[in-house]
Structure formats: C-alpha cells, structure tokens
Amino acid sequence: MTEQTVERRAIWYLLGFLAVVLAFVLSMALKGFTLQGFYVTLGAFLTLSILSFLYKDNIFYKMAEHLFVGVSAAYWMVMGFWSVMVPNLIGKIHPPAVKPFMPAIASEPASYWYLIPAILGIMLLWRLMPKGAWIARWALAFIVGTTAVLNFIRYMASDLLGQINSSMVPLVVIQNGSLDIMTTISNLVLFLGVFCGLIYFFFSKEHKGVFGVGSKIGIWILMVTFGAGFGYTVMARISLLVGRFRFLFDDWLGLLK
Predict the structure, then answer these.
(1) What is the pLDDT of residues 31-52, one digit of tens each?
(2) Cβ-contact 64, 48 below 8 angstroms
(3) How far is CA 209 from the centre of its chain?
(4) Long-range contact list for 88-94, CB < 8 A, 24+ apart?
C-alpha cells in the first residue's frame, strides 16, 4: 500500500468521522439536547453501526461490536455476582454479611457445606495462574461429571420419556359416539412420521422395498422438521430486526407517529 493510498484512506476516515459527529449533533439538536434524546441518538447510532456491516466491515461496526460485547460481559458479571454469588455463597456461609442487601437471607443459619463449591470455584480460577493449571482440571471434571448426571436424569424424564408418552396416541379417536376425523388424521400423521423417522435410523437392514419407502418418508419428515425449526429461528430474528427498525423510524425519526 503506497503512502498516497494511506493518506487518501485517512482523509476518507476523517470525513466519515466528521459526518457521523455532525449527524449525532444534529439529532441531539432535534431532540432538544435532553438526556432521553442522547440515549435515543446513541441507540440509533449503534444500531446503524451494526447494520453497516451489510455493506462491508468497517470501523463503526467494530466499535459497536466491541462495545456490545464489553457492556454485555460487564452486565452479566455484575448480575451473576449479586444474583448468584451473594445469596448462594456469601449469604450461605456468613449470612450477616448480606444483611444490608438481603435481610431475609441474613436471618438464616450458616451452612458451611457451601465451602465446597467455593473451593471448586477457586480451583477453576487457578487456571489463570502461571503454574498449577492442572488444579483447575479436578474442579472442571467434578462439575462436568455431576452436571452430566443431573441433566441426564432431567432430560430423560422431560425429553425422552415425555416425547415417547406424547407419541403414544390413539389412531382412531371417537368422541360423543362419532368419529373425530381431524384428530384421527392428526394422530395418524404423528404415528407415521415418528415410525418412518425411526426407520431411517435403522441401519441393520438395507433400505429397499417397503422398508426403503418408509425410510424415504422418514427423510421428508426430518427435512420438514428441520425446516420448521430453522424457519422459527429466522422469524425470531426477523422480529428483532423489526423492533430495531421500529426504534429507528418511531423513537428516533418520529415517522410513525
């Protein structure tokens, strides 16, 4: 990159920065230089900085991204300290220490069993030390092992057994002495979908003939399921995008009022 190119790029960066500052001041002037106007203008600036990545990577996007990550990390760190460590660790080991913040917990008796998770937490932080990083592996192994066992039991009851119970439906539904056609069709589709999906994952038999037809139906069922899940995720992101556009056009520009 030549020196002339560097100077030209620096000039464009300076002009862009001045344009952003001018637009920020103009927006503040339209909002009356109030604190609420500053918050709205700042939010609009950060939103547009994030959306500028649709054009290409730039310094405004990087600044907004780093600010978002830093503020989020700080916020969740403070929330974790006051909502987890203070009531569940300090309040359990020495309740009088949290009396100014949580008087209900301060009246409870001390439980020194909570020294064990405190020691495990200190062992995890030992990984940041220049020596003795292996100490953190013992705490990590204990946490991963106990979490895996507890979640296995919970997911076994809520997901596996719950889905099996929900799949065992009557194929013919009769209500008030007559056939409920819609519920019967729904149950048949559910049964065939689950059955054909399981056939696709049965690899001990070659997928030919009737077995192969069931396997192909299972593939279509799986694709529809994955597509519906992906579509649901996209719609959730679209709703966030609509919220941002509403903020820009309503709260900032006031065009929707």
Answers:
(1) 777 888 888 888 888 998 898 8
(2) no
(3) 44
(4) 88/114, 89/114, 89/117, 89/118, 93/118
Q: How far apart are CA 22 and CA 17, in angstroms?
A: 9
DSSP codes, 202-247: --SS---HHHHHHHHHHHHHHHHHHHHHHHHHHHHHHHHHHHHHHI
Helix (H, G, I), strand (E, B) or coil at 256: coil
**What does pTM read for this prediction?**
0.69
The dihedral over CA atoms of 215, 221, 227, 233, expressed in degrees to the nearest 10, equals -120
Can you give 37-92 as a three-state secondary structure string? HHHHHHHHHHHHHHHHHHCCCCHHHHHHHHHHHHHHHHHHHHHHHHHHHHHHHHHH
Q: Would you give the distance in Å from CA 92 to the centre of its chain?
A: 30
Read off the pLDDT of residues 63-75 as tens digits, 9 standing for 90 and up. 999 999 999 999 9
Q: Using the structure block, give the residue that is written with the tokens 């070659």.
A: 206
- pLDDT score recorded for residue 65: 94
With H, G, I as helix, E, B as strand and everything else as coil, classify residue 179: strand
